[in-house]
Write a structure and sequence with these properties.
422 residues, alpha+beta, Rossmann fold, SH3 type barrels, Elongation Factor Tu (Ef-tu), domain 3, 3 domains, six-stranded antiparallel barrel, five-stranded parallel beta sheet, 9 helices, 30% strand
């Protein structure tokens, strides 16, 4: 027998829920504002109870940390963001679904902190979608864990002169680890998400593949998910297009059908990353802008404000366009030059190839075009010799390797001078 409590507040109002729980069943409850008496309910049944928004939020905060349920062969845990994609994933998961939303940290000083995909408002929207379909919903408050696993490495990477991709770190590692752990506690057979991606069989193993809708494909963001985990994962939107998804949500009468898309790097809360970094303690510091020969051509107020390939904001007058070519955190230096100096035909990434491959295509950014390359494994990662140059490759970027539509490798780009050691 344990005693738990949860509270919630907004706009000067406050709600508190106190529960006594034996195993997975509530034996006593002090909970005003709910639509049902919680006494005698299992935690799974309680997760379906509606009522006043603050009271339901307080109940969710009480139940989330201890939630568990008996296994069911038909149950699917569905990651809910409050948007249309996860809403349709929930529809397709069937009546034995359970929704789960991760409450993640967002910068409270950001210009749109209430409108991002993991804000309190988004959590409420996700829960209301589930409850409108009489499906239970659980909230996991992972703000502290998210700060440590995603936000702090983002800040440290920029301070160290790298250009990280927090979305691949979040989606490809942090989120899936937490969601799959929850799925097991919830007794679900598999985890479904609203990502536009597919899972295919290749040489006897499950691998990630591009979604059918090329404009929405999210395989790049998910590329670092360990293939060993994919057997417990389902992407119900992988064969669909975005317009089909919105139409399906509208036919079902879901409020999410007309909800706007969530933004990338949600913890920035709508602000420029430079503003965010400064708020997180990365201080401006004057340093030199030099060309490849080392000749000083200007000044800057922090190397972390620049990334390879950047043209705007250099503040350097020249007879031809100049780009940031590289940054040096140790000396607080920014190197600039013409576009041709950005070209790279060889890359080394820390990470791994999921299946042996010699010829494949490589992407260094979510929206970049893939480039054909010859691949070889190296200690701690892989090397790619490109058939044609890429421009603006920056240490810290995610490198994804595709064999056709199938993700066969992923890693993080390391500086040209860095050696991997395994």
């Amino acid at each position: 027998m344990i005693q738990i409590s949860g509270d919630s507040s907004r706009d000067g109002c406050w709600a508190l829920v106190r529960l006594r729980v034996d195993g997975d069943r509530i034996v006593d409850a002090d909970a005003d504002g709910l639509d049902a008496d919680l006494r005698g309910l299992s935690l799974l049944e309680a997760a379906s109870v509606g009522g006043e928004t603050l009271a339901v939020d307080a109940l969710a905060n009480a139940v989330g940390p201890i939630f568990r349920a008996e296994p069911s062969p038909s149950r699917v845990a569905v990651a809910m963001s409050g948007g249309v994609d996860s809403a349709v994933a929930l529809l397709r998961a069937g009546r034995d679904a359970i929704g789960v939303t991760l409450r993640l940290w967002t910068d409270p000083h950001g210009s749109s902190s209430e409108r991002v995909c993991c804000s309190p408002a988004a959590v409420i929207a996700a829960r209301e979608t589930c409850h409108s379909l009489t499906i239970p919903h659980v909230t996991l408050d992972l703000r502290d864990e998210f700060r440590r696993a995603v936000v702090q490495p983002f800040v440290e990477s920029y301070a160290d002169g790298r250009t990280p991709n927090p979305c691949t770190r979040c989606n490809g590692a942090f989120r899936f680890a937490e969601l799959l752990a929850f799925s097991r506690r919830a007794g679900a057979r598999r985890l479904a998400t609203g990502h536009y991606a597919r899972i295919v069989e290749r040489q006897g193993r499950s691998l990630l593949a591009r979604g059918v809708d090329a404009g929405k494909d999210q395989s790049y963001m998910l590329a670092s998910v360990d293939p060993a985990l994919l057997g417990a994962v389902w992407f119900p939107l992988g064969e669909s297009r975005k317009d089909e998804i919105r139409a399906e949500a509208a036919r079902a009468g879901l409020a999410a059908a007309h909800r706007a898309e969530s933004q990338e790097a949600c913890f920035l809360a709508g602000d420029d990353y430079r503003v965010f970094l400064q708020r997180r303690g990365v201080e401006p510091r004057t340093g030199p802008i030099v060309d490849r020969s080392g000749t000083r051509v200007g000044s800057h107020d922090g190397h972390w404000r620049y990334t390879p390939g950047q043209r705007r904001g250099l503040g350097v007058a020249a007879g031809r366009p100049l780009y940031a070519i590289a940054t040096d955190a140790a000396t607080n230096t920014v190197v600039v030059g013409p576009r041709e100096e950005l070209a790279r035909t060889s890359l080394v990434a820390s990470g791994r190839l999921y299946t042996p491959v010699e010829r494949a295509e490589v992407k260094i950014r979510y929206r970049s075009s893939p480039v054909s390359a010859t691949l070889r494994p190296v200690p701690g990662g892989f090397a790619a010799q490109l058939d044609e140059p890429v421009f603006g490759a920056a240490p810290g970027q995610t490198v994804v390797v595709y064999d056709g539509d199938v993700v066969v490798g992923a890693g993080t780009l390391v500086p040209a001078e860095e050696r991997l050691t395994g």
